[in-house]
Amino acid sequence: MEAVVIDPFVFRLAIFVLAIFVGYYVVWSVTPALHTPLMSVTNAISSVIIVGALIAAGPEDMSLAKVFGFVAIILAAVNIFGGFVVTQRMLQMFRRKK
Hints:
Layout: H1 8-28, H2 35-56, H3 64-93
């Protein structure tokens, strides 16, 4: 029997498509009471992305990876800031009125 070799691009594309479907169903099945803790988790994930992007956008020569790392830093920072804003607004909804 001969082993079948799968193209790495097709393999990674299949994983990406499966991640989209799993992510969609996971996010839309969350009850409203869990949205604030979920935002905290996404902030933690974005902080890990920023660490990886800082490594990718290091001080060496300029390359496409450096540009993508810089873009990842900007997008993850916006995501973290937005997550904190949304979390604060949701927590204010549950405070007692004076």
